[in-house]
Amino acid sequence: MISFLHSSAVNGINAYLIDVEVDISSGLPVFSIVGLPDTAVKESRDRVVAAIKNSGFDFPAKKITVNLAPADIKKEGGLFDLPIAIGILVSSGYVEKKSVHKICAIGELSLDGKLRPVKGLLPIVLSLKKFGIKKVIIPEGNKNEASVAKDIEIYPFSTLSEVVKFLKNEIQVLPFKADNTIDTDNQILPSIDFSDIKGQFLAKRGAEVASAGGHNMIMIGPPGSGKTMIAKRIPTILPSMSFEESVETTKIWSVSGLIQAGESLVKQRPFRSPHHTTSSIALIGGGSYPKPGEVSLAHNGVLFLDELTEFRRDVLEVLRQPLEDKIVTVSRAKSTLSFPASFMLIASMNPCQCGHYGDANKECTCNQYQITKYRSKISGPLMDRIDIQIEVPALKIDEITADKTIAETSDVIKQRVIKARNIQYERFKDKNIYCNAQMGPKEIKKYCVLDDKAKDLLKNAIEKLGFSARAYDRILKVARTIADLAESETITSTHIAEAIKYRSLDK
Ligand SMILES: Nc1ncnc2c1ncn2[C@@H]1O[C@H](COP(=O)(O)OP(=O)(O)O)[C@@H](O)[C@H]1O
Ligand SMILES: [Mg+2]
Ligand SMILES: [Zn+2]
Question: Is residue 464 in a domain?
Fold first, then answer.
């Protein structure tokens, strides 16, 4: 007898409907699976046989053929165990055929018949309605993640035998529901705050401007000056994620297997800080079953590259494409796949090889040639995509210990950031632009209007300090954000003067 049910697979972050057909006929006992890669077939077959037997059913000693269609979609093995096992139980008469009509089943089985959670469940459940599916059977461990999908009935189970009882109507189960709204007023506050940072007003202000306009930022300073501390606090001043942003980010985390049982949506903006020994695949994504890289895990949040000069040059160069396009394209043998990658790049570096150039506490031992060579580790085209460059000098130890003033909290700064962002949403309403950092030459011309004093100041700075044409555009964009923070329509000389300060590496 032949049986049909549905399952699904993800490729990138897109889900596809997979039809699972199981045919059992008389003949020598052979169990074959068509449509899965060879290694996955063997593993899946072994798990399905053991799980069926250990759940108390007879495994049919007949010719069993499983077809997973369409064949040309590359599938990872695990999640088809459950639909294959159910199909076999239907074809061998344990379960009625009509009870699996229009049902989708997903889950990896362990040898004793338990259902294990799988990766990529969120993009799958969000697509099922589109495929005409109304009910989905999933592992218990994935239920919170799956509950984000509102238009589908979700039935989570822990074992194969429970699934069978449910399909045979021997137990009554209500679809699982959970409240996934994002309560922006009631988010769990992170334990870190901008008020932890003493002094460093320029760097803190730079972080505020960067957050307000979505600008990338690099901090240059000796070890121990607080660069890492500042970077880690940037998510605390960014506006909270919207529900849509949260779902987008969660899909990426889901296919990477980063959603733990019990968790549903990623609600805080991501902060990813890959180590400098990271490979280019780990950074931008890829592999034979392409997985998102750090740039995509940081989608809608912050990618922090600490000690930027320590990263391999070829690794840094692959960053240019996602920085430009906000999306990563991973090429595969036959096709290309893409993952969203819209993040704020925050980087840190030492000013020189020894780390103490310009440090009031310790003398630099590098010569000019060494300093130039050290800085040239970051290519011009990469540096060009970083709008804000800030020097972070080391504080004297008593500046840290003796300073009893209470610095501004993240919450106060965040309110200003949100105000400035709202001005930008309004400004770019019908365009595909969300913040000043994303302006192209056309928008710069239209929206970066300077008053006369500001024009003179910028002209002088370009002549005296020798800024490049590219630096000129960057100064204008950052000045636009500074003016937005001040709720000023025109850009004044004060705004330009501050923006010029953020070009410390160009001087
Ligand atoms: N401005 C500051 N305010 C408070 N503590 C600071 C400051 N700068 C440095 N520190 C202290 O020094 C430590 C090292 O700072 P860190 O951010 O790691 O420096 P960097 O990344 O520049 O090398 C921090 O954990 C903190 O204890
Ligand atoms: Mg550091
Ligand atoms: Zn030095």
Answer: no
Task: Say if residues 213 and 424 touch (Cβ distance below 8 Å).
Answer: yes
Q: How far is the CA of 382 from the centre of ligand 3 (A)?
A: 23
Distance CA 21, CA 6 (A): 9
Is 327 contained in some domain? no
The span from the CA of 123 to the CA of 8, in Å, is 10
Q: If you measure from the C-alpha of residue 144 to the centroid of ligand 3, how many angstroms do you get, rounded to a whole number?
A: 52
Ligand 1 in reach of 227 Cβ (< 6 A) = yes
Percent of the chain's residues with pLDDT above 70: 96
**Is residue 6 situated within a structural domain?**
yes
- pLDDT category at 461 given cuts 50, 70, 90 is confident
Ligand 3 centre to CA of 212 (Å) is 33
Radius of gyration from C-alpha coordinates of the chain: 28
Inter-residue contact 193 to 233 (CB < 8 Å): yes
Average pLDDT across the chain, whole number: 91
Instruction: Assess whether the C-beta atom of 198 lies below 6 angstroms from ligand 1.
Output: yes
| CB distance 78 to ligand 1 below 6 Å | no
Whether 39 maps to a domain, the answer reads: yes
- What integer pLDDT is reported at residue 117 of this predicted model? 93
Q: Does ligand 1 have an atom closer than 6 angstroms to the CB of 195?
A: no
Which structural domain range is residue 90 located in?
2-167
Rounded average pLDDT over 34-45: 83
> What pLDDT score does 184 carry?
54
**Residues with Cβ within 8 Å of residue 298, at least 6 apart in sequence:** 270, 271, 272, 341, 343
> What is the per-residue pLDDT across 276-312, written as a single tens digit (0 to 9) for each?
999 999 999 988 788 999 999 999 999 999 999 999 9
Tell me the whole-structure pTM to 2 decimals.
Answer: 0.89
What are the pLDDT digits (tens) for 377-432? Answer: 888 888 888 999 999 998 877 776 777 777 899 999 999 999 999 999 999 998 88
The residue count of the chain comes to 507
Select from 229, 230, 408 the residue to mutate for testing ligand 1; criterion: most ligand atoms less than 8 Å from CB: 229
Q: What's the total number of domains in the chain?
A: 1
The CATH code of the domain that includes 52 is 3.30.230.10
Q: Ligand 3 centroid to 346 CA: how many Å?
A: 23
Per-residue confidence (pLDDT) for residue 191, from 0 to 100: 85
- Return the bridge partners of 21, or none: 4, 67
For ligand 1, atom 1: residue with the closest CA: 198
pLDDT of residue 466: 79
Q: What φ, ψ does residue 125 adopt, rounded to 5°?
A: -65, -30
What is the DSSP-derived secondary structure letter of residue 308? G
Which pLDDT does position 189 carry in this prediction? 57
Kindly identify the ligand whose nearest atom is closest to the C-alpha of 372: 3
Q: Is the CB of 202 under 6 A from ligand 1?
A: no
Q: Which atom of ligand 1 is nearest to the CA of 230?
A: 17
- Does the CB atom of residue 350 touch ligand 1 within 6 A? no
